[in-house]
């Protein structure tokens, strides 16, 4: 007779993936204001978001005409430090979770 190893049921742990807020895609939103110049916003987008000068200029124009614009998409963990760096320059920015609507 062979011995079979049986684990007590309470020792059998089931692996599950846990989704957190950080796993969902988000947008980095930059807000228009009447204080910051195009050049300052463009410089921030190039330095912080690693955009090309052309891309940063287009984003700045969209921010100006639309009142806000999603300049980058990614995880919350990726975007939060960028958002903080932009706001430290006196530019309004937020991280918003994408919705399916």
Mean pLDDT, all residues? 85
Give the count of structural domains.
1
Measure the end-to-end span.
Answer: 62 Å
Shape: globular
How large is the share of residues in beta strands? 15-25%
**Order of strands, widest sheet:** 2-1-3
Describe the structure.
By secondary structure, the protein is an alpha+beta fold. It has three helices and three strands, in the order E-H-H-E-H-E. The chain has helices spanning 38-49, 53-66, 76-88, and strands at 25-31, 68-75, 93-97. The termini are far apart. 20% of the residues are buried. The radius of gyration is 22 Å and the shape is globular. Helix content is 39%, strand content 20%.
What layout of secondary structure does this protein have?
Blueprint: E1 25-31, H1 38-49, H2 53-66, E2 68-75, H3 76-88, E3 93-97
Antiparallel strand pairs: 1-2, 1-3
Helix pairs in contact: 1-2
Summarize the structure.
With 101 residues, the chain is an alpha+beta fold.
Overview features:
alpha+beta, Ribosomal Protein L30, Chain: A, 101 residues, 3 helices, three-stranded antiparallel β-sheet
